[in-house]
Amino acid sequence: MTAHLQATTAMAFIPNPIKGRGAVTQPMGRFETRSVEPLDDGWGSLEDSVTERVETQLFEERARSIISRNDSPDVGFDQSINPYRGCAHGCVYCFARPAHAYMNLSPGLDFETKIFWKPNAAEVLEKELRNPGYVCKRIHIGGNTDPYQTVEKDLHVTRQVLEVLLRFRHPVSIITKGAALMLRDLDLMTEFAGLGLIGVAVSVTSLDDELKRTLEPRTSSARMRLRLIRELASRSIPVTVMAAPMIPFVNDMELEAILEAAAQAGATSAGYVTLRLPHELEGIFSAWLEAHVPQRAAHVMSVVRQMQGGKHYDSRWGVRQTGTGQYAQLLAQRFQLACRRLDLNVGARRVHDTSQFRVPPRAGDQMSLL
Question: Of residues 322 and 295, which shows the higher confidence score?
Answer without folding.
Answer: 295
